[in-house]
Amino acid sequence: MGTQNFTEILKTGVKRECLIENLIILNELAILYAPTNQYKTFLSLKIALEVLTGSQELGATKTGSVYIFSPDTAQSDLMLRIRGLLKASYSHLEEDFLKNLDLNFDGDLDLTSKGWGIEDDYEIIKTENEYGHTRTDKRYFERPKKWSEQEFDFRQDGRNNNLEGTLLIIDTLSQAIGSSSINDDIAIRKSIRACKQIIKSSSKPISILLIAHAGKDSSKGIMGSSLQKNDIPTVLKVRKRKNGQMELVREKMKSAAEGKSIPFKMREIVVDDEETLYVDIGSELNELENEIIKRFQAKESKDNIRDNTYELLRQQYNSKKSFNVVFARAWNSLSVKGFLKKDNRTTIKGS
Q1: Of 168, 123, 141, 237, which is closest to residue 27 (Cα–Cα)?
Q2: Is the per-residue pLDDT at 147 higher than 50?
């Protein structure tokens, strides 16, 4: 918090920013889990491409760099999945954003190893406020030894310095803890602390998304140590409903969006004669949603937005009552996705 007046902090709070609104929080850890063959990696790639492009299919999204550490998926398979997703959902965009993507398939990341600077690699910073009270903070400055040449915020390799954050995806956590078991509380605790150290070390905002396994019955939670759920602030899971509908569920989240889900479908696509799948969120904003966002940005009240939008689109609805039901549903959905935040009135993308 630096030298900011503590009384002012109590009054205004500390701003909590998101890479993807109500899904991926900046400067925090998140974990996504599901049973085998339930599309965890496909979903993580969808999240990655949304951040790379600043698209809005999962909610209001900042544009950022992405680093994917993927010892669990063969390089050829992962690249095919990325190409399929690009062709299906982002072919209308110039591919300059791909320069902000880095992939690592080496399998040499061990979050439990020494050299992460958790205990020793920091300096003491003392600041004095206007009342003469001294505050002592630790400022971490070392990178992990194994990745000492890798800047997670991509400062030194010619990338776009105007990006709003970085997303690091580790797929899967079980492959990033050396020879330790996923049931080992000590190993998991070290891994979580190492990830927090990466966040503290980064000179720009960074989020870390860990991918984890569940057993055949995902209702029993993440496979292995309970610390994965207890000590990580955002927990996402993939759930398949009885009707076959797939959804990404915010199982644990420090916001009103907790418990809410994002439905998606898996679709087939062919890339250079090879078949693969991609996640289809089906998220194109419809006419009503676009009109709500436009009027919200123009600072109209909710009541005026509802009434004026009805007058514009009334031919599409049987009655004002039926429109009000649809409007309320659209308003709530846009709010959860972060499109109707007051501080976003002039910065909302994708409208």
Answers
A1: 168
A2: no
